[in-house]
Amino acid sequence: MIFLKTAVSAAALTLLVGTASFAQGGDPMPGERVDAQGMPTTRSTPAEQAQTSEINNQMGAKNSAADTKAATDNVQYQEQQKQYQGQLQQNQAQQQDYQDRTAAYNGLRDRYAAERAAYHRGVWPDLYVKWVIVDRDAGLLGERVELINGSLVGTVIDTAHVANGNVSALLVKLDSDKIVWIDAGDVRYNRADAIVMSDLDRADLRHMADERT
After folding, report:
1. DSSP 3-state of 201
2. What is the DSSP secondary-structure string of 64-96?
3. What is the CATH number of domain 119-212?
4. Can you give the pLDDT at residue 175?
5. Cβ distance 196 to 133 under 8 Å?
6. Where are the beta strands (DSSP E) in 17-151?
7. What is the pTM (predicted TM-score) of this model?
8. How far apart are CA 87 and CA 170, in angstroms?
9. Which of 67, 103, 206, 102 lies closest to 147 in space, CA to CA?
10. What residues are paired with 195 via a beta bridge?
């Protein structure tokens, strides 16, 4: 009985060793490729399996980092688009406001053209003749306006323009707090000395301001 158990145990041990040997290498299965020593070439060694696992982990980490960067880039892009759209809307609003002011001036100019032609105008001194306003100039805003006799009468608070961008009139707040449009033809501007001068009469400017209201 003891001999029988020993034989059975030996057979079981032989089977276990054979199974373990097959798991690590073992005889090739039908159709498997073998090397010069007759070992299968399609089975990974433990070292190869570990290397494959490491490569997979590295690729997973890289993919995760790429996904995170893509998500961050998308958030930044959306914020930039939002900011751009806001600036675009603000610019459109400013353009519309500018067009409305210019249209308002043109309406007043057409309405009072005949009367304004009859206003008194002084003779430009030779020094001022060439100081005409040609194009849009942000420096005009806030400049004080004086008459040919040197008297200060108001401050430039806005400008109107024709289609090509040239200044067609200045919106001036008189020192009496009234508002008046002065045609560019009645203004000379010395940029170097920041002098805005009008050839109109003070009384006519007050009358023109009254027309606007």
Report:
1. coil
2. HHHHHHHHHHHHHHHHHHHHHHHHHHHHHHHHH
3. 2.30.30.240
4. 93
5. no
6. 144-147
7. 0.48
8. 27
9. 206
10. 190
| Domain coordinates in residue numbering, the chain | 119-212
Q: What angle do CA 144, 147, 152 make, to 5 degrees?
A: 40
Tokens 């067009």: give the residue.
Answer: 99
Please answer whether residues 109 and 183 qualify as being in contact, where contact means their C-beta atoms are separated by less than 8 angstroms. Answer: yes
User: Which strands make up the sheet holding 144-147, listed edge to edge?
Assistant: 179-183, 167-174, 152-161, 144-147, 195-198, 187-190
Q: In this structure, which amino acid lies at residue 49?
A: Q
Q: Residue 199 in contact with residue 122, Cβ under 8 Å? A: yes
Half-sphere exposure of 167 (CA within 13 A, CB side): 25
The residue ranges of the chain whose pLDDT is under 50 are: 1-24, 213
Distance of alpha carbon 24 from alpha carbon 44, whole angstroms: 9
Tell me how far apart the alpha carbons of residues 182 and 105 are, in angstroms, rounded to a whole number: 10
pLDDT score, position 154? 95
Percent of the chain residues past pLDDT 90, beyond the cut = 11
What's residue 91's pLDDT? 82
Pairing between β-strand 187-190 and β-strand 144-147 as defined by DSSP bridges: unpaired
